Fold each of these.
Amino acid sequence: MPFQAISIKKIVNGILERDYVLPAIQRHFVWKPDQIINLFDSILRGYPIGSFLFWRIKTEHVNDFQYYDFITDFNVKDNSNDKIVPSGEKEITAVLDGQQRLTALLIGLRGSYTYKTPYLRQDHPQAYQKRELYLNLAKPKEDESHGLAFLTEKEAKEGRREGKLWYKIGRLLTEEPSEFMLSEEGDSLPLEVKKTAFRRITEFSQCLNLDIINYYVEEEQDIDKVLSIFIRVNSGGTVLSYSDLLLSTATALWTEYDAREEIENITHEFASYKAGFKISSDFVMKACLTLSDLDVKFIVKNFNRVNMQKIEAEWEKIKDAILCTMRFAIGYGYNQDTISSYNALLPIAYYIKSKDIAEKFDHAAKYKKSREDAITWLRRALLMKVFGGSSDTVISRYRDVLSKSQSENFPLKEIESSFKDIAITSQDIDEIFEDTRYDREAFYVLHEIFGREYNTDVDMDHLYPKSLFTQRNMRTWGFTTRESQEEVQDLVNSLANLRLAGHGENIEKSAMKFEAWVQGLSKVQREALLIPAMKDYGPENFVEFCKKRTVLMKDRLKRNLTVQSRSNKNLKKH
C-alpha cells in the first residue's frame, strides 16, 4: 500500500474520537516543551516533519490487544497514559511510529503541558502550573521560533505590556481566522497589528488543513510480525532505547500480567521509599534478563517470545527479589545519593531469587551471615567501581559464580577467589584517604570502616563542624598562613573528620561543641568511632586530630578488608 496523507486537523480530531490509539508496545510521552514548539515551528516554516507508521487492526482482532489513550494534558509528575478498551465494533488504527509527534500536536492544539517553574521549590504552590501553547500574533522577533510559547493564562494576558498579542492556537480547531478578527478582541486592534494578526492566523490555519501527515498503514494482524516491524523502525535511532523495546515486547507478549503496569508499579514503589530510589525501567528490565538467566544485553535478538514468556513466568519471584534487595540496601543506610550503580545490586537480587528467600533475607536471623557477606561485597564493589565499565560483562561473570555456588550463604569467599576487582592493597587504601572527600565514595569507605545495620536514615556527619572554620576563627586558633588555612579547609571534608550517624544522632550532636560531645562519650564509644586519645580536642588541635585518626581508620580498614600486596593483586589479573 502506498503512502497516504491526512491533515493535522483531521488526525487530531481522529485521536480525540479514539480512531487512533496507542498499542501497549509504545512507551510514555517524553518530549520537552521546546521540542513541541520546534515541531510547530517546522510546520509553520513548511519543513517536512517525517513520516508515520500506522497499524490498522481489523474489527475481529481489536480485542486481541491492549491499548492506551494519547495524553492530552501532560504533567511531568505523572506521565502515565490511560488504558482504554475499544468497543470492538469498528476497526481502529494504532500508531507504531510517530507517537511523540502526534502527542505533541494534540497537547499543542487541544491540551496543556504542566512543568516545574524554574527556581521554585517543589512544594511551592506555583511550582507546577498548567500551560497552553500560544502564538504571538504581533510580529515576532527572529529568535522567537515563530512566536510560539507555552504560557499560563496570566502570562498570556501580561504579554500585552511587552507588545505581544498571544493567541491560543487550539482555537483554530473550532473557529475560522475571521471569527477572531470580528470579535471584540480582534476588532479593537490597531490596523497594522490587525493585518499582521490576520495574516499569521490564516497561515497557521492553512497549515492545519493541509495534508502534511504522510503515513504508511500496516495491515498485518500477527503480533509477532508487528513487533518485528516495531523493533525494526525504532532500533535505528537513539530516541527509543533497547530497554524500551524490551518492555514494549514484554507488554505485547505477556498474557497473565500487563508488563507496562507492573514495571510502572515497581518503579513508583521504589520512589515512595524514604531512600528515594529513582529506578528506571532500564534497571528493572536488566534485572528481568539477569534473574531469568538470559543474555543480559539489550540487543534485538533477545526480544523474542520465548524469552518474554520465561520472564513472565518468573515475574513474581523477580519482583520480590528486587524489592527485598532494596529493603536490604536501605537497612544499611543506602539511598539514591549513595548508590553509584544500581547494577551492583543485581548479584544480590540474583542470590535472593535463586535461593527463594525474598520473604526473609532482609530480616531473618538465619540469614545474618549472608547479609553481612553481601553488604561487604556491595561496599567493596561500589568503592572499587566494579560496575563502572562494561557492566553487562561484569553482571554475567558474577551471575556465573553465583549460579555455580553450592553454598546456601552468599558466596563471598568464592567471589573473592574468582575476581580481582574487589581486592584492595595498602597502596589503594593510601590513595583512597588521599583522594576521598565528602561524597558518595566517602560513604562507601565509612561504611566499610564502621559498617553496621541502620534502622533509620543515615547521614555523613562532620565531627568538627565545617561552619567553625572561618578565616577569622582559623587565625584565632593559630592557622595564620595561607598554607595552613588551606590544609585545614581540605581536612574538614576528609575521611578523618567524618563519621556515619543516624539522623537523630546527627541532630543531637549538632547542638554541641565537639570538645563537649567527645567528653560525653564512653571509652567504648570512642574506640568504636576511632577517636584518638588527646589531651585537648579544641579546634586549634584539629590537624593533629585528623592525622591521628587517619592512622586509626587506615588500620581498621586494612583489618576489615582482604588487603593484598600490589604484586599479588597484579598476578591474579593474568
Amino acid sequence: MQRGHQQWRRLVIAAGAAGLLTACQNMPEAKMPNLAALTGPSVAKVGDLPKVDTPQWDDAAEDVNDNRALGYGLVHMPAMEDYLNQLYAKIKQTAEVPDWPGKVYVSSESTLNAHATGAGNIYVNIAVLQSFESEDEIFALLSHEFAHVYLGHQSAFRARLVTESAALLAIGIKTLAKEVNTRGWGSQDNISVATAAANSLILPAWQRSVEEQADLLGATISLRNGYSYASGFKAFLERVADVEQNAAREAQALAQAKRAQAIQARKTGVDKAVGEVGDSISDQVGALLAGAAQDHADAVAREDALSKQVVPLLPSPRPQPRIEPWNRALKEKRNAEVLAHYALFPRIDQLLAANKPRDALKLARTAASGATAGDGTAVAYLYNAMQKGGVNRNEQLKALQRNQAWPQRSWAVQMMIATSLAGSDKPRARAFLDQQYADFGRAQRTTPDVIGFYMTINDAQGAKQMAVACSLANPRYRAVCLDRAQTDAERRAAQAQSEARSKAIADQALEKIKF
C-alpha cells in the first residue's frame, strides 16, 4: 500500500512538471546573449584580427604530461610534427604573435578531432591524419584551434566563467523567469534550476559561440595565406557536420533502445502511467533544449554562415588545393608506417570479437613493430591479444614494458604494468606506480588513477589523503578523486543519501503543486 502511495505521488509530481513544461513552450522565446563576448576579445567578421593581450600561459611540461594521460597518450611521429609545426609557425606569424609558445602534437585518439590548450599546444588526433586530404584542410584545422588560443577561450573555460560566474547565473535565472511561470517556487529552487540551465543550455551555447568565433578568425588566417577555402575550411566543416550527424543518429538509436527497455520493465498500471508522463517530459525537455540551441549553429549552419562571408572575398582565379605537400608528409617512411599500423587496430578488434585470437595476435605483433614498437596503443593491443591468445604473463608484461623506453610514454600503459605487477607483488607495484606518477609530473589527469590503484592494493588511508589533497588543489577532478577513494559500502551509503535528498525534493515539489 505504501509503495502504491509513493507511486501515486510520483505520478502527481510528474504530471505537474509536465504542465509546467507545457507552459514553458507557450512562452515567448528568450534570446541568448553573445556569450563569447563575456570571455574576452571577439571577432565580428572574416578579415578581423583583434588585438589581444599576451595570455598567462599554462605550464608546457604539465600540459604535455596531462595529454600523455589522455587515452593511450601521444604518438611518436617526429617528421609529421615537424611539418605541422612549420604550419603552426606560419599561423602565429600571420596573427602577428610569432613568439607565442606552443607546439603541435599527435594524439592517439581515434575520433576525428583536435584540441588546443592554455599552454598554446594543439593536439591533433591521429584519425585526422588518416582522413584529411590536403594541406588546406589541416591548415584550416590548426588555424581554428589556434583561434581558441588567441581569443583566450581555454582560460575562460578553465576559470569556469560559463557555469559558475555570477553574470551567467543571472542570465540563467533571467532566461528561466521569462520562460517559466514559477508560482510557488522559492529562491533556492530558482538557483538550482538556473545552475542546471547553465550546464545544459548556457554551456553548450557558449561552446557553439566560441566555435563560430574560431571559424571567423581561423578563416581569416587561412585566407591571408592563400589557401583554398573549398578544400580547406569548407571541407573541414563538412567533415565536422558528418561527425555530428552520425553522433546524433547513434544517440537517437541508443535513447530509443533505452526507452524500449524501460517500457518493458514497467509492470503495474501506475508504473506505466508514471513512465508515460516521464517520457512526455523527456520529449518536451528535449524540444526545449533543441529550441534553445537554435540560435547557435551546428556545423552545417556554421559552414553556410562562413561561406556567405568568405565567398565574396575570394580572389579570381581561386586558389588551387595544396595536395602534394600533404601527401608528401603522409608518405614519409616513418609517418606512413605509423599510419599503416594504426589502421590495423579495427581489424584486430574484429578478429578478437570473432573469437580468432591467433589471427588477432599475429596482426597485433605487426602493429607493435618498427615505428610503433613501443607505442602506447600498439603495445596495449598486443598485450590484450596475448592475453586472449594464452601467451604467458612474463611475455605479456615485456610487451607493455616496451613503452617505458619509448619517446612518448603512455600513462595508461604504466597503469597496466602496475596492475599486472600487483597480482603477485603489491609493494613492488606501489613503488613502480609512485615513480611513474613522479615521472609524469603528477599531472592532474593521473591523480584519480593513482587513488583508485591505492584502493585496489588496500591502502585506503593513502587513497583518502590523496583524494582530499586533490579536491582542494584540483577542482576539475574533485568529484572523481573523491569517488575513487570510496569503498563499495561508502558508495552505497552515498547513493542512499542521494536518494533521500531526491525524495525530500519530491516532497517539497508535491507541496507546491496546486490543483
